[in-house]
Write a structure and sequence with these properties.
The complex is a heterotrimer. Chain A is α+β, with helices and mostly antiparallel strands. Chain A has helices at residues 2-23, 40-53, 66-76, 90-98, 107-114, 121-127, 149-155, 163-173, 194-209, 230-243, 257-262, 275-282, 317-326, 330-340, 352-357, 362-365, 382-397, 406-426, and strands at 29-34, 58-63, 85-89, 128-129, 132-133, 135-140, 144-148, 175-176, 182-184, 214-216, 223-225, 268-271, 288-291, 300-302, 305-309, 343-344, 372-374. In chain A, β10 and β11 (223-225) form a beta hairpin. In chain A, α2 (40-53) packs antiparallel against α14 (330-340) and α9 packs across α10. Chain A is globular and about 65 Å long. By secondary structure, chain B is mainly alpha-helical. Chain B is flat and about 75 Å long. Chain B starts with a helix and ends with a helix. The longest helix of chain C is centred in the N-terminal third of the chain and has 32 residues, at 71-102. Chain C is globular. The chains are: A alpha+beta, B mainly alpha, C mainly alpha. At the B-C interface, α1, α3, α4, α5 and α6 of B face α1, α4, α5, α6 and α10 of C.
């Protein structure tokens, strides 16, 4: 018996080494890395289209989780061991573009980016580093307010348009059982997840502050914290009041985020467009609607840009940029839109058939004209900044003593601000 | 005859060179040089984006004192280690002792309890993550059956540590039970029979025969358990990693901080410093336990 | 008076079985629950209160995982890596263990203490340095790069050394007098006598290599090199959580190790036993 097992192991080892050796001979090949798992379907479509143009070139695609992805790119790109095409979000484009790791796009690609109306105007700004275009936009999309129509109808309220209305609606929509335990969240707050937590806190705070939590300094490529102010403290108090005390409308014990919405455990939450295909597949019975992010003194909507870039040290740059161009084709963009729900970056294409089938997408495509679109800054220390600020905010969420305690909230956001500035000073990017 | 001996010595040395030689070389490349290099990196500001690191002395270690994330990770790691070692070893000992009273069925129980041990950490964590789901998880469903309020488990910092501890105990109790079985079976029956004749009841026998004779194995198990739990990473990373669709409160532990600082923030120098601190802790723990063991054996 | 070892049939034995069975239930039910979940449709999984046995049993989850998600490739990778590591550990351990046990040479104590010292150092302490080294050697995302840190095992060297010490010197000297070469002695005398500890070490090395997670996490860049552990974890991290396929994936990743365990169960337990006795 033992001998058989050992024999099997040996055979496995031999077979494996043969397969490995065999796999080594390849024709021209490019590799593509995507920073999100939803990119798999559109990447597959792009490979199909690419093969028609370049039948002899092999394309290998690979999608990652964002955080694990960052380190791999940083470790491999400077050495020329990264993929030929890397699809990454604008914070990484900024970081690597400034470090000289990304190659400049050929003139036809640069022209695409510079064409008016082809993409959001901010794309050109975010993708031009040191005067050169370094990426081709693929998708983006900001958040909107998802709400459960049945719950709102039963409570007799309209979908909120301001932050105050959101608060009042949250309190009206919550449900408790006889023992006083919350069974349904009126508004689901992002309570976990460092970068996601600070980002979603900022969805609300931006409306009160008129600026993001980290902003650019006067000198280019410098940044500083923007948390130490009354408005941010008020935003924190807004969240804490919904988590403790008489207006409690959310709790750690409830199911959160998209899954919670699909389970009917929450009445409203802020999220991006990818929720729509998810709901279609997993919870088709939930009758929900989408409205723009509620506003306050200001009206600011978050957006981001995921673009295809080509590392400078790559060996197949020309082919890589060709692949990036293929990702722009309408059929690929349609798969992206339909399957993943993310909003294609191309604004000059006609997606009316998709929109006719699912009109809820419209909220994500056209922002109200009075809204100001904002992007997060391109700091190199982005991950650390948003993680550490997020952790402080989430600690604060758990503090009952901050209910209606503006001074206490101010102390917390000041602490977050100090830590943010310290991180920026350490990475050499601090500037007033 | 002398020539034979001299030749033998030469042959022996040649043999050692050909066998142990490559092994030592591998050890140098895979273990020793990396450890030394880590110590060196800990005194620099090596970063993945900055290819030429500069010497910064004890700066990294100084920052650690103020790093709340690191302190939280350290506290979590110590708590998990102490609690898991205590509960796991006690449970393992308990099951091992009562298993002695069971006849041939004990082999079956041994096998069953060992199954989580051969289940790799990743699927084990995935399974338990699903069990701890606040809405659909089996644990909260059982709670509601027993009319207890549902807990937030992996979504709140108070409960995530309990979840991690439960998973760790589930995964390792079988292993230590088998180790204790060895120890218990090695105690000759004669001791117990003599004690019975002398009039000692079961409890006295356990206290005065079983426990003292089990001490060496218990200490060995304790050392293994402490090192194992101190390096906790996979269960924390897989069970409590915050996913986009399914949020969770990330349970900070030492090894994850090293990973995070090195591979998410790219601060390899700082991460190396934290790694040296991890090493220091492990060394202290092992030395302490050897000292205790030394005293006991006397 | 009853000895702690006596096994009469009395009430307490039933009580003990009850406790052990309850324990066994706690031990097995997570895996069983996951198994049941893997055969349910997405909608049935999200039902509250949940059904125990699937009402609409489906093989879809397994189909997704085995075809779309390339799990078979991951399992192959895990087998390859684990086999390579086990082979290397066994060879280096018998070489090192035998040499330390039966030979004298200069600096013997020094080298032995060195290896002893590295035995306690957890891999996570120096993984960053190994990562940088592997990068310079351009071995990212390759089988050699993945298996590099687990080519040797300090514990393995000690374990075999402990065993080799107990081999009588007369046996070896007799062979030498007969004119046997040292390597022949190793191959035909020492190894056959060491079958049991080698088997136990092999199993231990294989399961350690299979469960090796943090290193593939940081070094593997493309799906063709994913191990099953890495594949399962990444599968769980996607935006859309599909519990059915994740359950199927988890069950599939347990099957290889569980199968080996059931075939070689005596050797598994023996391995733990041996390491316990050597303490």
């Amino acid at each position: 018996m033992r001998r058989k097992v050992l024999l099997a192991l040996l055979i496995g080892a031999f077979a494996g080494s043969f397969a490995f050796a065999a796999g080594k001979q390849e024709p021209a090949k490019i590799t593509v890395w995507g920073c999100f798992s939803e990119l798999q379907a559109p990447l597959d479509k792009a490979v199909e289209v690419f093969k028609v143009k370049y039948p002899t070139v092999q394309v290998e695609t690979m999608v990652f989780d964002l955080r694990d992805f960052e380190a791999k790119v940083a470790a491999t790109a400077p050495r020329g061991q990264a993929a030929d095409v890397i699809i990454m979000d604008h914070s990484l484009v900024g970081r690597y573009g400034k470090a000289g790791i990304l190659s400049a796009a050929p003139s036809d690609v640069a022209d695409m980016v510079n064409t008016k109306g082809r993409y959001l105007p901010i794309a050109k700004e975010k993708l031009t580093i040191n005067g050169k275009v370094v990426g081709l936009p693929v998708f983006g999309g900001g958040p909107a307010l998802f709400y459960n129509k049945d719950y709102l109808a039963k409570a007799g309220i309209e979908p909120p348009t301001t932050v105050d209305e959101l608060y009042k609606a949250a309190v009206k929509l919550r449900q408790m059982d006889s023992a006083g335990t919350l069974t349904r969240a009126g508004y689901s707050i992002r309570l976990t997840g460092p970068t996601g937590g600070s980002q979603k806190f900022a969805f609300i705070s931006n409306q009160m502050v008129g600026g993001d939590i980290i902003v650019e300094g006067k000198t280019p490529n410098t940044y500083h914290g923007n948390l130490d102010n009354e408005a941010t403290a008020k935003a924190l108090m807004w969240h804490v009041n919904l988590l403790h005390g008489p207006d409690k409308s959310d709790d750690w014990a409830l199911k959160h985020d998209t899954e919670g919405f699909a389970a009917g455990a929450e009445a409203m939450f802020l999220r991006e467009s990818w929720v729509i295909p998810y709901m279609k597949q997993n919870a088709p019975n939930i009758n929900y609607g989408v409205v723009p992010v509620p506003r306050d003194k200001y009206f600011r909507i978050y957006d981001w840009l995921v673009s295809a870039c080509v590392p400078e040290t790559g060996k197949n740059k020309k082919l890589a940029w060709e692949f990036a161009k293929v990702m722009q084709e309408k059929e690929v963009m349609e798969v992206l839109f339909n399957d993943s729900g993310w909003i294609p970056a191309r604004r000059d294409l006609d997606f009316s058939d998709i929109l006719a089938k699912e009109p809820r997408f419209k909220v994500f495509i056209t922002n109200p004209p009075e809204a100001e679109v904002y992007f997060e800054v391109n700091a190199s220390a982005y991950t650390e900044l948003w993680t550490k600020v997020g952790e402080i905010i989430q600690e604060a969420y758990r503090d009952k003593g901050l209910v209606n305690n503006l001074a206490g909230c101010r102390a917390v956001v000041k602490k977050a601000n100090d830590i943010a500035n310290q991180i920026l000073k350490e990475s050499g990017e601090y500037g007033e | 005859m002398i020539k034979f001996v001299q030749n033998a010595k030469k042959r022996h040395l040649l043999f050692v060179l050909c066998t142990l030689g490559p092994v030592i070389v591998l050890f140098f490349y895979i273990r020793i040089i990396p450890i030394v290099k880590t110590a060196w990196y800990s005194f620099t500001d090596y970063s993945l984006l900055k290819v030429n690191p500069s010497f910064v002395g004890f700066h990294n270690y100084a920052i650690m004192f103020h790093d709340t994330a690191f302190k939280e990770a350290l506290s979590n790691t110590l708590t998990v280690t102490v609690v898991c070692v205590l509960i796991t070893l006690t449970l393992a000992l308990f099951f091992s002792v009562i298993l002695m009273r069971v006849g041939r069925a004990s082999a079956v129980y041994e096998l069953i309890y060992f199954i989580p041990v051969v289940t790799p950490w990743v699927p084990a964590s995935v399974i338990w993550r699903w069990l701890f789901d606040p809405s659909y998880g089996l644990v909260n469903q059982l709670f509601s059956l027993l009319h207890l309020p549902p807990q937030s488990w992996l979504q709140s910092p108070d409960h995530v540590i309990i979840a991690i501890i439960i998973i760790s105990i589930w995964k390792t109790v079988g292993y230590y039970m088998v180790i204790f079985n060895v120890g218990l079976r090695n105690i000759p029956d004669i001791f117990y029979e003599a004690a019975t004749i002398d009039g000692a009841n079961r409890r006295k026998q356990f206290r005065y025969i079983t426990l003292p004779l089990l001490k060496p194995i218990f200490l060995f198990a304790a050392i293994m358990a402490v090192i194992q739990f101190f390096n906790v990473f996979t269960v924390a990373y897989v069970a409590s990693a915050d996913n986009q669709g399914s949020p969770s409160y990330e349970f900070k532990v030492l090894v994850w901080e090293i990973y995070r600082n090195g591979f998410n923030y790219y601060k390899m120098g700082y991460a190396s410093a934290q790694a040296m601190v991890l090493l220091a802790f492990v060394l202290i723990i092992v030395l302490l336990q050897f000292k205790v063991a030394g005293n006991e054996i006397d | 008076m009853k000895s702690i070892r006596s096994k009469p049939f009395d009430g307490s034995i039933i009580f003990i079985h009850i406790i052990l069975c309850l324990g066994a239930l706690c031990i097995l039910s997570p895996i069983l629950w996951m198994l049941l979940t893997s055969f349910k449709t997405g909608e049935e999984i999200l039902r509250v209160p949940p059904t125990i046995f699937p009402q609409y049993a489906t093989l879809n989850n397994y189909h997704t995982v085995l075809t779309i998600q390339q799990f078979p490739r991951f399992i192959f990778n895990s087998f390859l890596i684990s086999s390579l590591s086990t082979l290397s550990v066994l060879v280096t351990s018998i070489f090192g263990g035998y040499a330390f046990a039966k030979f004298d040479f200069p600096l013997k104590k020094f080298f032995f203490t060195l290896i002893l010292a590295t035995a306690i150092v957890p891999f996570e302490v120096y993984m960053i340095s190994v990562y940088i080294t592997i990068g310079k050697l351009n071995l990212y995302n390759s089988y050699l790069g993945i298996v590099f840190p687990i080519l040797i095992m300090s514990f393995g060297v000690f374990f075999i050394r402990q065993h080799c010490i107990s081999i009588p010197n007369e046996l070896l000297d007799a062979a030498r007098v007969d004119g046997a070469a040292e390597f022949w002695i190793l191959k035909s005398v020492v190894v056959p006598l060491s079958k049991t500890p080698l088997m136990a070490l092999g199993i231990f090395a294989f399961s350690e290599a299979w469960a090796f997670f943090i290193w593939p996490l940081i070094i593997v860049n493309t799906r063709e090199f994913y191990t099953i552990e890495l594949g399962l974890m990444i599968f769980q991290k996607m935006y859309y959580i599909e519990h059915g396929p994740i359950a199927a994936g988890a069950i599939i990743s347990i099957v290889p190790m569980l199968t080996i365990f059931f075939i070689l169960r005596e050797q598994f337990i023996q391995g733990v036993t041996l390491s316990g006795m050597k303490s």
